[in-house]
Amino acid sequence: MLLLLLLLLLLLLLLLPLLLLLLLLLLLLLLLLLLLLLLLLLLLLLLPPPPPPPFTLTKNVFTQWLLLLLLLLLLLLLLLLLLLLLLLLLLLPPPPPPPFTMTKNVFTQWLLLQLIAHIGGHACFTNSPCFVRISFFNGGGIICVSFMHLFFMLQ
């Protein structure tokens, strides 16, 4: 084991100068690339820009105007289609409303209320702390129903 460690240390001592030399070469290369980039940036900043090309009337200008006119006509057609769609939406009758649906909780509460109304509908107990008064107009007579609010709390 000791021999293996000594051999590894010797190998490291022999390779260490080579590794340092390689690292130094990499740093030098990086510095050279950085200097080259700096020189390129200086050249781009100091050199004047190229002159613009001279303007000439050619066949390309006519084609460009024609394409621009075609694009404007296409946009006008799109606008007319949008206006037609808006007109159709305004003139068509609205769709019928969805059918009335009752949730399970509301139906259960209504059913419980009907049950209580049929069992003790002719007496109103006003001395209860949970008294709630619901009046049904039954052909001129008023039927009072009292029930505990715990049955009918909305969730």
TrEMBL record:
Highest taxon of the lineage: Eukaryota
Transmembrane segments: 27-47, 67-92, 136-154
Alphabetized UniProt keyword annotations: Membrane, Transmembrane, Transmembrane helix
Protein name per its UniProtKB record: Uncharacterized protein
Source organism: Dreissena polymorpha
